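Quick question: what would this complex look like in 3D?
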Amino acid sequence: MASEPARKSAPTRDPRERTDFDGRYVGKPFRRVDGRAKVTGQTLFADDLSFPRMCFMRLVRSTVPHALIKQVDFSKASEIEGFLGSLTGADTPEPFGILPVSQDEHALCPDKVRMVGDPVAAVAAVTEDAAIEAALAVEVEYQELATIASVEEALATPEPRIHDYPKEGGNVHKAVSMEFGQVGEALAGADLVLDDLFFYEGNTHLPMEQHAAVAVPEDTDRITLYSSTQTPHYVHRALAKVLGLPPSRIRVVACSNGGGFGGKSDPFNHEIAAAKMALELGRPVKITLTREEVFYCHRGRHPVLMSMKTGFAQDGTILGQHLKTALDGGAYGSYGVASTYYTGALQTVTYKLPAYRFDGVRTFTNKAPCGPKRGHGTPQPRFGWEVQLDKAAEKLGLDPAELRLKNLEEAGRTTANWLKLGTTGLERCLRAVVEGSGWKKRRGKLPEGRGLGLACGSYLCGAGLPIYWNHMPQSGVQILLDRAGSVAVYCGEAEIGQGSDSVLAAITAEVLGVELADIRLCVADTGFTPVDLGSYSSRVTLMAGNAALEAAERARELLAQAVAEHLEIDKDRLVFSDNRVFDAGEPDTGLSFREACIAAEAKFGTLSTVGSYIPPRSPGKYRGAGVGPSPTYSYSASVIEVEVDVETGLYRPIHVWIAHDIGRSLNPVLVLGQVEGSVYMGLGEAMMEEQAYRRLPAKYSSSLVHKHPSMLEYKSPTFLEMPPVTSYLIEDPDPEGPYGAKEVGQGPLLPIMPALANAIHDAVGVRIDQVPIHPHMILRALAAKKTGRPARFGPAGFPQVDFGGTLHVPTPDQGGDGRSIDDYRHKLRSGMRSASGTMTTREEALQKHGKLTTD
Amino acid sequence: MPNALSAFTSLLIEVNGERRAVSFPTHHTLLEVLREECALTGTKHGCELGECGTCAVLVDGRPVLSCLVLAAEMEGKRIETVEGLTDGNELHPLQAALADLGAAQCGYCTPGILMAAKALLDEEPEADRKRIEQALAGNLCRCTGYHKIVQGIEWAAARMRGEDVAAPADVLYGAPEPGSPGPPDSSSSETTERQDG
Amino acid sequence: MLRLPAFEFHQPSTLEEAFALLGSAAPSVRLVAGGTDLWPNMKRRHQKAETVVSLMKIDELRGIQTTNGNGNGPSLSIGAITLLDDIVRSSEVRERFPALSRATASISSPPLRNMATLGGNLCLDTRCTYYNQTEEWRRSIDYCLKEEGTVCWVAPGSPTCWAHSASDTAPMLAAIEATVVLQSPGELREISVSELFHNDGIEYLTIQPGEVLTRIDLPGSSSAKHCRTAFWKLRRRGSIDFAVLSVAVALWLDGAGTVEKANIVLGAVASRPLAVPNAARALVGQKPNIGAVRNAARAARRAATPMDNTDFKTQWRGLMVERYAEAAMCEAMDLPHQLPSPPHV
Ligand SMILES: Cc1cc2nc3c(=O)[nH]c(=O)nc-3n(C[C@H](O)[C@H](O)[C@H](O)COP(=O)(O)OP(=O)(O)OC[C@H]3O[C@@H](n4cnc5c(N)ncnc54)[C@H](O)[C@@H]3O)c2cc1C
Ligand code: SF4
Ligand code: FES
Ligand code: FES
């Protein structure tokens, strides 16, 4: 049995003690620490950097969707004045990718392109003007291959393959099947079974900042890369791998991100190519992507087709569900294996679901790769689930709010798929939006064309497992104190606008009793800061926050010892506040914070402390149990009021009420900003945003292109589309979070899309089972209704899919132990290729069946 | 075809009240010249095609998209960028309000939004919410959902008119949970850190 | 960053200088006014020029003047380089032709209207989602008929380009029967706005090489006084977006309130502003009534051929022609209508 990793999260005191803590900063709407820099133009984003001798790079991107590269000709390009050099796939043969199981990308494609926009070559020049001209002058010869544009096509077209993995062949990237409890029995015993199909179109993050990177060589084998990335740690890993340099010779600095939303959390080809070019040329190289290229980086929301079959008892009790999802993954793996699991994993955390079966499949297609966008894989099934609950309530004659309240999950329970819940504020969230919107009085009584819709959601507060399974912390913080009384905080987390720098600074200031202005931060620099895995899965507040708490408390302890000695009082009597350390009983007796640092430095030598965080182990032990666990979950509920015009299908949301279970607001005004931003992005997805592709008539062309890779045609709502929002912050401090805090960056997006669809139904009586909801869909559904057909617009079928052998996992209620009953057999069959199984599970299996070899 | 180096322009341009001599390839936009020749990188860009508003600066007091004007057209014009908003070390009320309300999340759209908002309030100090939304409708923001921006501009407008008002409690703390005792009192503006910058 | 290719740039201060430059630099020369259409097109490289001549320093082309007009009483004459925002701000324009003010205010976004000109808006290139794309993107579809390619992807097999006219002022100016002045060295011709356009996505303007559109003349006050106008625009968002459909209505009523003359002009559903005489005919001789409006709206729908080259489902846009035409005509006739107001109002 593998040794259990030490759980290092345990802060020095029970965090519950300070959940009702009223601090100088915690719970207060203080100005973010980077606020001034951001409103004065001082914040440096990657494209704002400039270095002596810096030159400019452009990528030559594929203009064909699927082809073998025959030849790359730089002869015209190299004649352009200012041309400095070029690279092709031969210069970067080593593959990379965010997940260890999907090392399928190249900085420059060596032999084959898989989508329009794949990088084929790089050129560098003295000016960006010249680099642009040179890139346009590069001539590439391709031998085209047949293309795949959808999940259905991928399933039906095993050849040609887009990738030569997995070893089962075909264009299926990942298939999973798992059953918790007895779903067949549950459905058979149900009074009402709903069997619905839903479709969620892909969409993208569209950060306002276009990705940029600057690579600065420091020697022939040493380099620093500045980049707009959410995950410097993983860029660091990928760079070391592709450049073939020891990681210690590479430094990655994440600049402030001009928005991320998950779109900057993969290592990207342009970052690696810039580093390679810089090493080749021996001078700094900058690349700034165009908006179109950002659409090709993508990693956005997967288009997902869903089949959802759920059984209910007459009184509304949910008995069981069988969910099938089919994900259109695009040309590369990215986070796709995890995304596939995520389309099933969090289905269980809001309402009690005693029996649950999840089958998921992700295929490759010749389109930009999908990945993690705000809510990673969960908004799609959440949309289906919340719409289906609305339908169930209607069928059962129940109020949709009551149906949900009746089935609520409870704090501390372990779900059917073995997720251990923390605090659950969903009931209060629901009651707040129901009350606030006048749901009971107004629903169903509004004039024709007006309606109210309700939905809920839940999200992780940090993924329980790191991408590369290991025994090390997921987040580390180091604090340096010195005789000037200054406090320097080092952490690998990346500020992407979410306010993570402010969280670290506030926690440290709170513990040490100093002001924010006394704290300096050094973040997201793999050369100097302890590792934090990055700004994804809403992990930073909880994980880096806990690490900061631990480091700060250790610093405080050192200071307290020195001050206690100096003042000759018991250290437990000391209070840290107002830049002083003083006797609680006799406030005049004390030292200034600076004097305290001097006393401590004299006593202990140079002062530095560290803190780190590892999430609690999850009880799930089955293969695939690695996706879904989190230290705790945030909850949200929303009611949307909509106005629909039956003549045109045009509609507009009139008001959004949203309640979010934040555990504890470290800074309410920043939390509100995240809530409102999530509502905005959710409305964009629900109403208009789509990463749409188009094929040209086959008779004339084999092209498969992004329909509109521009800010103008990819529709992102403006000031004028944003309705008023009433936000309720529900505080129920969670013992796992620093001061009780939970995440807010992603969760509040989840209820928005289904709440809108439900509101449209309330307004005009039609079901739109897909997003985005375009006006023509409403008209079509209304027309169907008139002619007596189902008043619905949505997908018509789910393809035949071989999801592989089903893993059977007894639920906690059935007395299971977190393992599947057929784990051993299943592993043999599937060759244990997934990184999503926990390492412990594998090691246990290996020990039990000594003959097995691992991958 | 003219080479990128064949035609260049030299001019005096006035940015934030400071005149300077700059030389640049004639086809370069104001955006490029501000960022690359004047080292004023506060002005950002999100599309370079006039579709997002990120690059907005003021020319003779009116907001324009610097990605779609040639710097060569700027002779004799008064250019204002985000770097010129502070009065010495003192933040402009718009800057202070957006900073205090967290209306600059990633901060990337912020310079363009500040400039568009300044032009509006300079001309219409009494601009109401609807006017603010209309005047800013060319500036996209992906982070904030716009509410904190609008609330910040309203707050700044009030303060610029000399009204001594604090940010409303629901802007800072959210709406009171129905049936709960209500939000913390935020009657004074001391609840936010350093209002003035 | 997307950048402009290199070119020679001239900023003459008189028309004569401009004509001289146009003459000497032909054929690869282009005029620019606000540049909000030309610069993006050149950055994407579907319009090219070695020399660009700016009109923006020619002061005589700027501003809104009251002139004696064409026998119809004092009228407004708008210089070609007048900024759209200055037109929106003009109380004279708003009072005489409120819908022209509204059409202008609906163009793109506030900062763009501080740069874009009325002349440029009329001469705006036709648009299509296969065309308004970067050089690299267009390479991946082997270009199209409008520029460098051989096939029209919107209607393969079609010998013509179906790119749509996207100007918002053009249908409105055509509806109120405005005229434009075109000048070339030693020559000046005045034509109606509707004569400015061909129904062809490539050769969409009747302007000759070397000609400059110098001003736009609105009908005189006696015409304006009896004219009722309306402008409705359909687009996804309340700002930034081009129209996927616009409806411009101008009606002239006699003393008894009967429609004497009507012009219904659609935008974004053809390669030119599309006048619908059948719709107009359905209104003439009628007192405002919903039946006549419905007949006219049906005629408008029959005339429009929306193509799959912009936002929204094509078929739905066809349905919307009728709805929007109805709403616009109702507004012009002061009849109640149900459609929710478009966001720009
Ligand atoms: C994001 C975005 C959104 C837009 N939305 C809209 C919209 O909603 N509605 C709309 O109508 N337009 C829209 N436009 C298009 C354009 O901005 C406007 O039509 C604008 O009015 C064009 O004017 P300009 O002066 O900038 O034209 P320019 O770009 O300077 O010129 C356009 C064309 O006209 C020619 N030209 C200009 N002036 C003259 C003249 N006096 N004589 C002869 N030829 C001339 C130029 O050579 C050029 O080919 C949008 C543009 C963008 C970038
Ligand atoms: S309508 Fe046809 S020819 Fe014209 S721009 Fe579009 S695709 Fe090209
Ligand atoms: S960068 Fe100028 S409008 Fe987008
Ligand atoms: S704050 Fe990030 S785009 Fe507006």
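Answer marked as accepted. The first helix of chain A runs from residue 35 to 40.
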